[in-house]
Design goal:
single chain, 113 residues, alpha+beta, three-stranded antiparallel beta sheet, 3 helices, 14% helix, globular
């Protein structure tokens, strides 16, 4: 992983249910809010430390069973963001590496259907 890789911009559209990132290397990532919330990297959502840094990209392609919205985003140092969700959850620290690794685009995730 390129440790200099970081977002140039992060845009949220609660009405469209997506978060978009333009990366410093020119790559574009688009995440559904449902998929991001369901892939929250906090220890509670992951079910313990043994499942940390695991995620399920298929959640970006399912019909949402719940509508999530982002109320706020705070940058954490130079390596992550903390998302404040409308369901009150805000424990997850989404590191740049994790966000890029879970990118659901066809280039990053060619096995998507």
């Amino acid at each position: 992983m390129n440790h200099d890789l970081r977002p140039k911009s992060i845009e949220v559209s609660n009405s469209k249910g997506i978060l978009e990132i333009e990366w410093s290397d020119g790559h574009h990532s688009e995440y559904t809010l449902f998929g991001l919330r369901k892939n929250c990297p906090c220890v509670t959502c992951r079910g313990g430390h043994g499942s940390m840094n695991t995620f399920d990209r298929s959640l970006f392609f399912v019909e949402p069973t719940q509508q999530f919205q982002i109320e706020d985003i705070k940058q954490i140092g130079n390596h992550a963001i903390k998302i404040f969700w409308n369901d009150g959850h805000n424990n997850g620290m989404y590191q740049w590496e994790t966000l890029r690794a879970m990118c659901p685009c066809t280039e990053c995730y060619p096995e998507q259907e």
